[in-house]
Amino acid sequence: MASVDSTGSSVSGRLRSGDLLHAGLAVALLLGVWTVGGLEVSTGKVSSIEAMNGSTVLLPCTYSSCIGIENLYFNWQYNDNGTLIKLCEALIPMEGVEPKVRVFHERVEFVGSSKSNNISILLWNITFEDEGEYICFARNPKEKNRNHSAIFTLIVVDQMKEVDNTLTVIIVSALGGVIGLVIIVMVIKAVVVHVLHKDDEKNKECLVSSSGNDNTENGLSGAKNENKGTPKA
């Protein structure tokens, strides 16, 4: 009886460990799906821009979710030395439905579209006071209110920096010179080959003509000798 009990307990222990293993795999799979399909917002490959005082700049932001969206909330905020100032906000009911955006800043204009997952804004007639960090925030209730944000930095200057193209000009000139030299060498080579080919043809013609003349002269001399050697009747 003792052996039966020990066997039964070992079997039940294996079953429990197997259940735990399956449960762990299921949790890991769910976490993996959650990570892959989670809401993300992005301001693009470049997270900052330099713009001239008085100009208009685009503050880019897009969102993505493999699971999809439902009542997606988003807003733009400006970080004023630690104090977040809300510039605009809106709710996107579902994919493809354009949001009704509430704008709280007179120089801000929403230029995005839910059809392209775009929630970008324009900032008109910027001043030096507009310099700083702008935060694009989104929250998706369909993913248990998962939220994500991205920061875009605006740098305001009084004049744009002149780009020194000296190195570029030197590189382009050097490449142009090399390419030109290669073309000249190829042209010279083609001319030399053509001239040598013509000389070979002339030499062949000369050899053929001289060989023909030699054969003709030999034939004539042979005929004369035969005529001289024949006695008169």
From TrEMBL:
Residues folding into a coiled coil are: none
Which GO cellular component terms, listed alphabetically, does the Swiss-Prot or TrEMBL entry include? voltage-gated sodium channel complex
Checking SMART domains in the record gives: IG
Segments carrying the region annotation (Disordered) are 206-233
Instruction: Output compositional bias ranges, type Polar residues.
Output: 208-219
Which is an annotated GO molecular function term of this record?
Answer: sodium channel regulator activity
Q: Does the keyword Transmembrane helix apply?
A: yes
UniProt domain Ig-like: residue ranges: 39-153
Q: Which residues cross the membrane?
A: 20-39, 169-196
Q: Which PANTHER family match?
A: MYELIN P0 RELATED, SCN4BA PROTEIN
**Name recorded for this polypeptide:** Sodium voltage-gated channel beta subunit 4
Q: What is the species of this protein?
A: Neolamprologus brichardi
